[in-house]
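User: Predict Ubiquitin-protein ligase E3A N-terminal zinc-binding domain-containing protein's structure from this.
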Amino acid sequence: MASSTSEAMDVDDTAKDRDRVSALVRRYFAQLTRGCGRPGCPNRHCRSSADASELDPTRAALLSLELAQCGDHALCDELPPFLSLPLLQQLCASASSGAPESMHALEASLAEVFSSAEALSRSFVSSSAAREAEAAQLAVDPSELSGVDAGAVGEAYSLLFSSPPDSAGFTAADRLGNVVMRGGHALLRGRGAYKLLTEGNCPLQREGGSLRWLLVLMANPLLLEPQHHKPVLLPLCSLIASLEEGAAAQVARWWSHWPEPALARIVVVLQQFLSVRLCHTQRIDDAVVAATKVLGLLYDANEAALAAGWRRGGRGSGGGGSGGGGGGGGAHE
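Assistant:
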């Protein structure tokens, strides 16, 4: 009797496993052939991704079965959120229609992504083809690039923060800027993000691609405004200044591949921060030291770009000071 019950349970478990795999296969097949509907999806196993392969139904079915049977699933709706320039353009176009639900959808997407290091690291990522083309132009291995599309990041911020004012002088850009900065503040608040990047066994230290969110946040033009210095720019500089030496050098290498105007804008932000801070405190405190170290990384990046011939000589975008390097105090006020 016990044996019969056990056999019945085994049959039931087998049927459940079969149903689970079958459901996964159907979901993967839809994802591979139709996509998740979000342009610029970073999941290469999604038809909406720029890296997706053209698959006929037979090949899509075989790959769906293979993906369903592997342990690490790659279903878009189970992965962290992301933003791409085409997706953001789609959301902004919808929001400009004036429908409240469309603006709420845009705000929700911004809040979700800008408050998450993992989501930001999956955002504005170059396609494999674009990365290989850039690597060939710079004569480096594609793995040396950050994978962040600096041009897309700049266009995204311009798209969000350049709407004309309404009759009361208020703009959608003000509203969206507040959402983005609140997200950044939530991400950097307290010591959670600090521990995330500075603990030796932290996966974000081991997995270099996960440092990409630092580049996206540092490129935010709203950081030029003093009201965003203490809640966002100060802890962000402190985090970057506190990176271990290898991670800090990696950030500098990534910046060396970025367009000079993009780096120059970050230098202006940091110089503005230092001017305001020194005027206010009249002393060199941890915040000044942290910002100076980040300027040092930008200087290293510019020097590396000049040495490699990626930029012409001149003062460039490196700012002042000597090399950055990791370690060093965090300015958490």
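Confidence is low (pLDDT under 50) at residues 203-207, 314-333.
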